Amino acid sequence: MEAWNVDLDRPEKVAAHISALASRATGPFIVCIDYFDTIAIRRVAPEHTKKMACAVLSQLLGGVFSGAELYARRQELELALTTRNGEENGELDFSLDVFSSQYWEVLNGLQPGCLRCDPDSFTGLLLRIEVAVEQAVQGICPQMQRLLELLQQKGFPLVLVSDFYLPEEFFRAILRSLQVEHFFERICISSSLGSSKGSGRVYRRIAEEYHCTPRQMLMIGDNLHADIHMARQFGMPTLHVQRPAQQELYAAFARQRAGGKPVGMADYLDDLPLQGHFSEMACSLWLFTHRLFHSLWSRGERNVFFLSKEGEFLKRLFVRYQQLIFGTELIRSHYLLASRKATFLASLRELADEDFRRLLAHYRDISLDDFLRSLNFPEAVIEDISRSFPGDFTVRKNDLGNTPEFARLLTLPEFRQCYADCRRQQRSNFRSYLDSFGVDYRAHGLSLVDVGWKGSIQDNIYHILDGKTTVEGYFVGIFHATERHANNRKRGLLFDNTDGTTPYYAVYNSNRSLYEMLLGATHGSADHYLLGAEFLQASGANRYEEYIGIETEAGRLRVMVLDLPEERKLYRQVIQPLQENMMLHFERLTAGYLLGDCNAASAEWFARRHARMVFSPRKEEIDFFAGLFHLENFGIFEYTSFQSDSRLSLGNRWKNLLALARDRSILESGIWPPIILRRLGLGFLQRLDGRRRLAREFPGN
User: Fold this and answer.
1) Residue 133, H or E segment
2) Facing residues of 240 across strands?
3) What is the enclosing helix (H) or strand (E) of 656?
4) d(CA 337, CA 524)
5) What are the backbone dihedrals phi and psi of residue 478, each rounded to the nearest 5 degrees, phi first?
6) How far is the C-alpha of 39 from the C-alpha of 24, rounded, in Å?
7) Are 341 and 527 in contact (CB under 8 A)?
8) Alpha-carbon distance 162 to 172, whole Å?
9) Cα–Cα distance between 578 and 545 in angstroms, integer?
10) Mean pLDDT in runs of 10 for the chain (701 residues)?
11) How far apart are the first and last CA of the chain?
12) Rounded to an integer, what distance in angstroms lies between the CA atom of residue 701 and that of residue 698?
């Protein structure tokens, strides 16, 4: 058996053949195996991985060089290196770490300063990109994996032999990601050894290392010259791996690319199966993450803070995006536990100068109890203050800020003392918490990421830092943003209505609650920041749990989160499975982006997928969303449910239908229209309304 057609012959037959060969040899029998197109199969032609790596590099260089230009320069330099190596030592190979330093000189010579890093950093970056690209396109041949298992069970020493330009440590990273490294007791990579299969020298080197003759070795591989002819020339038996189906895949790939038609992400994703409720959200979050990375990178930002709770999953996506494309985190991400409630009091001015407009302008009709809870006063203090007021302290009052009760509250000694003490405490503690990340935000500014809408947490942080630190906010969406300043900027990366509306604004803004629900977190809402003694004094501690503890000069600083069993149960049972499904789709989207030469799909492509969720939801998706709930924990304190309260009579439905016919704005209150229609008893209109909205956003289609 001199050849193995992988598409026809079973691995067990091959293993039996190898056992027969070994039985005729004296002493140990070493099985050497090629990697590319033998163990691993690619989704693209072998040389195309270099083009993909150049496309990624082009993105990081801001398009100073196109991917095609970078590839052309790479080809020229590789040819020069291999030619020189061939003349000096007879090896037509090169090592990427040696190549990269010269590549840096070539590119920097053409566009001085374009690389924004030294040669060593560039080398590390290029190596990691190469690994990321290879991981994106490689898979393990199932038949070959079965053969490796059989040979390992039989006790054969397995040696992986590959002519490749990556240093061994980076090559091993690929093997580990595909879970095949453990099969081999020796890995021989030409770039690290300085000897190759192509010259035949690596075979002699392996024989010397194992103290065996060529007849005690077998070479398995697909390359007729390097794996078969050169091994036979050394005297080794060989097994030629043949893959007709894989060769046809390469031929089809070549035909696709030969036409000259631009290829992009959408070419690999139009048939992507999206399963599960609201699974297209993965597409929208991919677009957000992609825009976020390039916005930060173009501004030279190297640290970014994701705000809890929605920022937890957004951070996971951001990290994964970088790992899959660049093989590393080029921009460090940090998770900052913050909420409107936790940061509001610390952001306020001295009481004599404070008008509480930033709360009361958005929550006019609240109770005194709501007001003090929004200031995050301790429960015991709220109870003491409430005794100073007759009647129900929790009754909401119209325009609270202009009531006599509110004016009286501000004069109470208990209020004034607690306001001063807690404000000072929380401001100092939050600054210590922010300092603990080791980021020089005072000098370089602070970049924040959150799900969005008005950006009030960013405003709070901006004021905690006395407005002296430039704060840049990146949000999924902006809806009537507050307090924009030259050094307190905000931008919605999917939708923004600051200066007019961004493209497809009505699509992405259609159900803002959907983002909030699908971006649920593993923990409760950030509530306050306490040093050791303050923690011991805090009342109602059973409602909270310590999420993180940090050692500071003033003692241990604890960040406390609100612990609500209902929210924990909702996350574990409902939201977490959806997030894991979204992560799988997100990874496929990123692979499509790489395969599509880093040409992202069009804005319309992404918007159409989001529109499917919000304009044409399936009945089970509406049912699912209606069963969710959300805790309002600032301004007002209550659970918000999306469920319809009761069944309406036919008469009430008819009245609602007539009212809707007269005033279509009923559906534009900010609540998702399918939910409004259900509450009105008009759910049968949902498909018609969705088609109307779809036609308005995508006319002519």
Assistant:
1) helix 119-137
2) 3, 221
3) helix 650-662
4) 10
5) -120, 130
6) 26
7) yes
8) 12
9) 25
10) 91 96 92 96 93 96 93 95 90 87 94 89 95 95 96 97 94 95 96 93 96 96 96 97 92 84 85 80 98 96 96 98 97 97 97 95 94 94 92 92 94 96 95 95 96 95 96 96 92 95 95 93 92 64 72 86 88 94 95 94 96 94 87 82 75 90 86 89 91 91 67
11) 59
12) 6
For residue 226, give the DSSP letter: I
Q: DSSP letters of 247-293? A: HHHHHHHHHHHHT-----GGGGTTT----STTTTHHHHHHHHHHHHH
| Alpha carbon distance 572, 551 (integer Å) | 30
Q: What is the DSSP-derived secondary structure letter of residue 663?
A: -
At the fourth CATH level, the homologous superfamily of domain 3-39+141-256 is: HAD superfamily/HAD-like (3.40.50.1000)
Burial group, residue 555, by CB count within 10 angstroms (0-12, 13-18, 19+): middle
Kindly list the domain boundaries of the chain, sorted by start residue.
3-39+141-256, 48-135, 349-429
DSSP for 383-434, please give it: HHHHTTS-S-TT---TTGGGSHHHHHHTT-HHHHHHHHHHHHHHHHHHHHHH
> Strand 138-140 relative to strand 40-42: parallel, antiparallel, unpaired?
antiparallel
Place of tokens 């439905």: 653
Continuous H helices in 491-564? 505-508, 512-518, 532-537
Cβ contact 74:170 at 8 Å: no
Residue 36 three-state SS: strand
Measure the CA–CA gap between 249 and 547, rounded to whole angstroms.
51
Q: What is the β-pairing status of strands 303-307 and 471-478?
A: unpaired
Question: Which of 496, 144, 483, 444 has the alpha carbon at shortest distance from 291?
Answer: 496
- Is the pTM for the entire model greater than 0.85? yes
Burial of 373 (0-12, 13-18, 19+ CB in 10 A): buried
Task: Specify the residue for token string 């053409």.
Answer: 110
Nearest to 566 by CA among 608, 624, 516, 628: 628
Cis before 569 (ω within 30): no
What's the CA dihedral at 605, 606, 612, 613 to 10 degrees?
Answer: 170
Helix (H) / strand (E) element for 640: namely: strand 636-641
Dig out the tokens for 521 from the structure. 């977190």
DSSP 162-218: E--SS-HHHHHHHHHHTT-GGG-SEEEEHHHHS--TTTSHHHHHHHHHHT--GGGEE
Give the three-class secondary structure for 134: helix
